[in-house]
Amino acid sequence: MNDYNELKDSELIEKFRSGDTAAWDFLFKRYEKLIESQPNFYYARGAEADDIVVAGMEGFYEAVLFFDTNKGAFASFAGLCIGRKIQKFVDKANSRYNSLLNDAVPFPEDDEKAGEEYLLDNVKTNPEAIYLEKERSMELEKELKRNLSETEYAVLIDRMDGYSYKEIAKRLGISEKAVDNAIQRIRKSLRK
């Protein structure tokens, strides 16, 4: 039996890539505490700590697959891959795209009628309230259009809809740097 304690991370990775699953198990044990500590540093709406750990495990697996054993230290590369995978998961969980799911209020399970009463109590049935809400929305939209350029406004709407910088750049036919610059100008405008 191999003594994996004596092997460097890069040697364990080579063994795993050659089909030695025990090398994977040992390498994973080395980094397990790092991965399991990650939920302490992140918050993802609607997610549990285990979801963040799973994202970290995916990042670790990708690190093992893509690490160049002839370059650098695996620990740094693994930390980077784990952090990026978790950050991507957290960004998606916290995005506006998931807000309906995250903000959903469960109906009472006991009584079907209680759910119907809940809906009736929480729906805006007052025509004046509906009108005022529409008016506020239109006023905000006018204000944004007045203070932002067409590109900035388009970037803002796409970003609020959960698109990434890359996706916005592609949709608008501009560079990712231009998207980032537009976001910075939007933030400045909104602070005023």
Describe the structure.
With 192 residues, the protein is mainly alpha-helical. It has two domains: 4-97, RNA polymerase sigma factor, region 2, helix turn helix motif (Rna Polymerase Sigma Factor, Chain: A, Orthogonal Bundle); 125-191, Arc Repressor Mutant, subunit A (Orthogonal Bundle), CATH 1.10.10. 71% of the residues lie in helices and 0% in strands. It contains ten helices and no strands. It has helices at 9-17, 21-37, 49-66, 74-94, 99-103, 112-122, 127-147, 150-160, 165-172, 176-191. Helix 2 crosses helix 3 (49-66). The chain is elongated, with a radius of gyration of 24 Å. The mean pLDDT is 79.
- Radius of gyration in whole Å, from Cα? 24 Å
Percent in helix: over 70%
CATH topology of the largest domain: Rna Polymerase Sigma Factor, Chain: A
How big a fraction of the residues is strand? under 5%
CA distance, first residue to last residue: 68 Å
Summarize the main sheet: none
Structural class by SSE content: mainly alpha
Report the order of strands and helices.
HHHHHHHHHH
Mean model confidence by pLDDT: 79
Task: Describe the secondary structure blueprint for this structure.
Blueprint (H helix, E strand, L loop, with lengths): L8 H9 L3 H17 L11 H18 L7 H21 L4 H5 L8 H11 L4 H21 L2 H11 L4 H8 L3 H16 L1
Helix pairs in contact: 1-2, 2-3, 3-4, 8-10, 9-10
List keywords for this structure.
single chain, 192 residues, mainly alpha, Rna Polymerase Sigma Factor, Chain: A, Arc Repressor Mutant, subunit A, 10 helices
